Amino acid sequence: MEHENNENNxxxxxxxxxxxxxxxxxxxxxxxxxxxxxxxxxxxxVSGGPDSVALLHLxxxxxxxxxxxxxxxxxxxxxxxAESDAEAAFVAALAxxxxxxxxxxxxxxxxxxxASGDNTQAAAREARYAFLHEAAARHGASRVALAHHADDxxxxxxxxxxxxxxxxxxxxxxxxxxxxxxELIRPLLRIYKEDLLAYNEANGFAFCRDSSNDKRQYTRxxxxxxxxxxxxxxxxxxxxxxxxxxxxxxxxxDYLDREAKIAFARIVSRGPEQGGAALERSDFAALHVAxxxxxxxxxxxxxxxxxxxxxxxxxxLVRTAILHEKPTTWRHAVGERVVVxxxxxxxxxxxxxxxxALFCARLDSDGGEVPLPQAGMRLTATASGQPPAGRHxxxxxxxxxxxxxxxxxVRSREDGDRIAVIxxxxxxxxxxxxxxxxxxxxxxxxxxxxxxxxxxxxxxxGYRLSAHARASERTTRFFHIAAEPTGNEDEAVES
Length: 495
What we know:
Shape: elongated
CATH superfamily of the largest domain: HUPs
CATH class of the largest domain: Alpha Beta
Largest sheet: 6 strands, mixed
């Protein structure tokens, strides 16, 4: 064991906090951010390094004031052989010295990495948090205390800035974050490393030194060892500047999030399809650009929790497409799970595959029933020597059976489909009919077409009836088809 009194870059001309000042600053953070309440059991993650050792001693000094009970937790990752074992022994002895219960475990993280293919830091983090959750559950703890401090926060903000994060990322780590059934708390988030080192030194608190902190294979280590010292020559108070930036952006991010939720409640409606959402283009355009971006991200989070693939460029593609006057219909896949549609002045977000379901069924001259769940309807066909009685309309069609070329098929539209429209000399593209009727593009494949054996479109239920093979006064044998809703119809079927 050795003291790391000069391992970190010091901020010049800055006086370290006294023991009393440091304890009061931590106590204010606990109270202000509600990091603990009387009766809480708090699991303290202790690696044995200077930060976590200081955290444990500080919380032990404040435990009576806040009425909390502490449990020490240490996970041996088995990365560094004897060094890791020595750290585990040191933490166990420290817990005993403070008369605190100690949870410890060892996980062969290198073996996990070899088996899973995860990177080192991700595997270690996953193992560590799983262990801390288990320790909390065994002791009925509602909170887990972590030793992240202000210099860690500054490094996090700088790392995210270099990676192109927006305001939500540059707010850095939070004082408290809910993770499953426990609250992860960071009481030291506004305490600098030099103050923790001075606290350990003034009180004679021993700690361990992690040799992996010197390895430049890790991004954070390279930033701490190489990048930060260079940047300090431009701004000696850069860590404080970055922490201040984090504080400001955290508050502004909270405000914009609240405003985005208000806008969501005001202009976004739940879509007819399961898990969908919809809004009017004019309502969206009236929002400030900052809220436009936030609203899109909020909708996507509502639809699919995993939105990690939504970078700035893809977000802007969707946002600007909504704002442009033309084209008036389009479809964009956002990630693997969400599709955004423009349907004239309506914008719809749907969860699921970008491809619409296709269907195909057959009818012969005897008639029969064709269920079309994709269209929310079923077709019932009957052959008769008498014209059908009862209600007629755009959801029913009667043909001259003798003029039909069987078998008939009921299918989704295909490129180049045309129909001989009644009253029109010639044919018209089915696509143009859908455009004229303002049928949303995502619903066009769900609308059935009745087609004869020669490939002629005879009927588009709800939209057009062909002039071909229509029943007339000279018809002696009739073929009648009626479309009926099935009870799970969507917008493809009008009522």
